Amino acid sequence: MGKKKAFVLTASLLCASPVFAAPVLDQSFVPQDGPQYLSSFGYDPDSGVTTEHFQSFTAGQTGTLSNIDLLFSSFGQPGGDLTLSIYEGGHMNGDFLGSTTVSGGYTSPNDFVRFDLSASSIFVESGKRLGFVIGTTQDLAFPDTYLLQGDASSGSYDGGFGGSLRNGALTLDYEKDFYFRSYVDVATVPEPGSITLAGLGLIGLAISRRGRAKA
After folding, report:
1. pLDDT tens-digit map of 46-78
2. Any residues with CB less than 8 A from the CB of 103 and at least 6 apart, and which?
3. CA distances (Å), 141 to each of 42, 45, 50, 98, 137, in order?
4. How many other C-beta atoms can be found within 10 angstroms of the C-beta atom of residue 2?
5. Which end of the chain is less enclosed by CB atoms within 10 A, N or C?
6. At what angle do helices 192-214 and 3-16 cross, to 10 degrees?
7. C-alpha separations of 55 from 18, 147, 148, 162, 163 in Å
8. For the chain, which residues make up each domain, given as ranges?
9. pLDDT for residue 174 is more than 60
10. Top-level CATH class of 19-188?
11. 3-state DSSP assignment of residue 109
């Protein structure tokens, strides 16, 4: 590699500024005080009603939505899938953005369960309103799947509101929010000095090889 080619490569490195992603905690509603409410969901064979839960939230960072953690009191029957879906606009009329499914049977009480959304590549911008819906294939005849909610006395979440869907019809509850945490992969640019050092190293390598070739 000649000096000219090495210089061109170095300039390209400086202009390209490679971008790396690092997941960070973005939004969180985890009150330490106040009452907790258990909210079951699933299919009720007696009434024919399927209940799902809804929570809207506002992104604080720009990047790719990586994970959402939900706090469960108990996590259902083994073999029953739970699906979390993301919608744009913080309501059910927004565009569907992606979903992920985990299997039930998680038995540790009062623990967060992670829903990995990295495969959906959901890009969000700071200030963007989103909403998630959590549903399950399990019957309410086995009421072992409970999400935790806090009310206004716990300190409500300011970036959105909770609610429930019964056979797809959404009822909002402005007094209660589901315990959740959201994570965003935030784009970061490497320090210019590290890119410059890499370029200088390439130039030095090219000069060294050229010197050996002449010898």
Report:
1. 889 999 999 999 999 999 999 999 988 765 555
2. 78, 79, 80, 81, 82
3. 9, 7, 12, 29, 12
4. 11
5. C
6. 170
7. 35, 12, 12, 4, 6
8. 1-18+192-215, 19-188
9. yes
10. mainly beta
11. coil
